[in-house]
Fold each of these.
Amino acid sequence: DIQMTQSPSSLSASVGDRLTITCRASQSISTYVNWYQQKSGKAPKLLIYAASSLQSGVPSRFSGSGAETDFTLTISSLQPEDFATYFCQQSYGTPFTFGPGTKVDI
Amino acid sequence: QVQLQQWGAGLLKPSETLSLACVVYGGSFSGYYWTWIRQTPGKGLEWIGEITPTGSANYNPSLKSRVTILGDVSKNQFSLNLSSVTAADTGVYHCARGDQWLVPPMRYYFLDVWDKGTTVTVSS
């Protein structure tokens, strides 16, 4: 299975901050990475697919980049509603696997 | 707007079979990958498996011997059966829709609709 790791596991930030979360794959996966946001008790929400494509309806302050083994999710200016846990996922091959998550709090 | 709603037993004893069903509201069942994912304390988010647009199923090898996923187009729903459960199967179970973006030869797959999940507890 392809292992996905994320860093940091958690971070504290303030409204207006620029935030970068890193995801690393255990092997090269081209740009087959998706990013999700999950708030406590809620359904995960797709933010970014194919490493850098913004899902419809997602604010443009979210962006993704990277290829092969190293990927980043960036929030350009953190808003109050962005405090949540963020997961990366590889879709290069089954079983699809997820990173352990990065919790963003105030 | 597509929504998913699932139901099933939330409390099981070891060795019992977990059975969940998920119904699709507000959208087509055909053409998508209907997927089960779980969040457990031990493994975080784990892809369990999917029913594909052709009706075939793909499973996580780590669970394959115990999992069955079926789809019913006429009812717009799909189901999960996980047999011989143990405490390690305790967690939140999500159903989700898988879709793809084709940029030949690439096929980008993602989960674009999720339900909020059901908590399943396995305890004697």
Amino acid sequence: GAVVSQHPSRVICKSGTSVKIECRSLDFQATTMFWYRQFPKQSLMLMATSNEGSKATYEQGVEKDKFLINHASLTLSTLTVTSAHPEDSSFYICSARLLRENSYNEQFFGPGTRLTVL
Amino acid sequence: RKEVEQDPGPFNVPEGATVAFNCTYSNSASQSFFWYRQDCRKEPKLLMSVYSSGNEDGRFTAQLNRASQYISLLIRDSKLSDSATYLCVVVGYGQNFVFGPGTRLSVLP
């Protein structure tokens, strides 16, 4: 159990276009999902925390108007990269938090989306 | 100082070797600790949680020293399939995961 999917797995787009990435928890409900970005040979950096039914919380330095997050249901969060530029090319990974009673809260990661902006 | 730091690596070891990774964290209020494994161009996958008493899972042993704010991972009898990047993860009160930069391991035949 606890599977998270992401779509698309890979996208190539032209500079200036917008790209939407979907993150779904397939067999559990997730009130909280997270969006990370990973540049080559670097670690995952948290971009924002996506909360179902409310606004996302963005980390310092992440532009909320450029990276639009929508968490409309308990199983789906979307990240839209608006007016993408080559420097936005990266590996975007989402995760969904699984709440466990009397235990730590584990995050399950999606397979990631590789974005290349030409 | 970065919130989570790890040995820079890469570690190149022969099959069957024992290898240890270290991780330090700066936030003394951190609550939970994990080791994740990430293969090239893939998402991170949970390897094991780290408990204060230390824990072992097969060839893998994780230890936590809260006083020194230090976490370790020991891999015994390395296999070729152990080649990956190992990420130390620290979780604070906000339940947010903070990833270390990772240590790359290559197990050589």
